[in-house]
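Moderator note: this is an archived Q&A kept for reference. The question asked for a predicted structure of one protein chain; the sequence and the answer are reproduced below.
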Amino acid sequence: MLACDLCGQALPSEAAARRHLRRAHLGRQTRCPLRGAAAPAAPPAPGCDEPAARRPELAERLPECPFCGEAAGRELEAHVRARHGHLLGAPGADTGNGEQLYECPMCSLTCTNIQILEEHVDLHLEEHSFSEGGNIRDLELAQWLQTEEDKRQRSEEEKQEREEFKKLQKQYGLDNSGGYKQQFLKNMEREVDRGRMQPFEYHKRKADMMECLAFGIDDGKTKTSGVIEALCKYYQNENKDVRRVWLSTGVDHFHSSLGDKGWGCGYRNFQMLLSSLWQNSLYHDCLRDTTLIPSIPKIQSMIEDAWREGFDPHGASHFNNRLHGSKAWIGACEIYSLLTSLRIKCQIIDFHKPTGPMGTHPRLFEWVLHYYSTDSEGGAKVVCTSKPPIYLQHQGHSRTVVGIEEKKNKTLCLLLFDPGCPSQEMQKLLKQNSDGTSLKLLRRFVGGLKEKQYQIVAVDGVLSMEEKAARCCASQVLTAEKIP
């Protein structure tokens, strides 16, 4: 709160103080400080320079001297003291003849005449307004520049986000660039252009593909059968460092083709899992409508059917409820939904963080060993169990666990089928005279699995219709068992 220096009235702000000073104590009519009469064009006092009123280019821009009219600018006070000091008295004193002195409330300068004080205070106010106006304009300019910079930065960030989102869409097959069929034809055309495929072979393979897609079955050209049986024979004769080994029921290997290379691993692992379930009579009733290995577009349709039944609505919304005709990656949740919709009992286990040194997951290996060895009896070195293989997922890729080795030094080693491994390499495991070097394609020790997180989908029996309905309701918020 401010107080008027002349009358003591309390005022809320500096702006209010200026208005009060003008209205209550000062007249706005310009008066001659020497003659006291209203004389806007009065002649200058003796000794003054040419009045600034005769030089309008200065008068418009700079404050004027109240005595002589000279445009003195910010040096006004020094000008008044130097040129017109005889008209002013010392602060706090009178003129010696009892004449009243008037003190400026803004700079403490004293004047002998109220009209002179009035002009002097006006000049203070004009100078302040001149300076304040400049500051306001500078502030407005700075605010405008900052606003424009913020807009530009937001625009750049939004552009970058859109580009990154498009890259993610393309990476995960959600960019509407077509699906299995389009990629298959495009890659075959590229092979023809490079001279690696003859035109007649292109047309033959195209016709075969269109026929398989029409029936919804896989063409079997990426399948390798008999690997599990070959492994059983190999381990029976191998006595170096393996103490025991457990293997799943016969599993066919499927690798990626021209139509799904780069994104089809999840679908290929489901085909491997399905090939094993067929070998077990326990699952025949669940799979009575799936008598042949389905093609990838058919598997996409089957997952969409599971979503329509109500499984995993959150996951379905991630794909906009559509997989067919896309190159969308799938993971453990989609495999779980599909198996459960077929009344196959399964669970998701989430090894959400490393449980060993150097970012390893020994608890994952222990869980797999327990899975395979639970129902096995006796001390046979090679145990061909009735257990289906395990779907193994990590960021960016998935594989199928078909068995586990226990070495004589108690270390564990997973046996994995990788959809990225071509048939030519897998077929080396079928040779009778194999020396075991080809097993490097399958073996993964604890130090070989160092992703931050792994998820598995393990099958364990069949579901009744009531159990299926209960799991469908529970999948509204799909959860996994976490280890640790």
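Archived answer notes: The longest helix spans residues 114-171.
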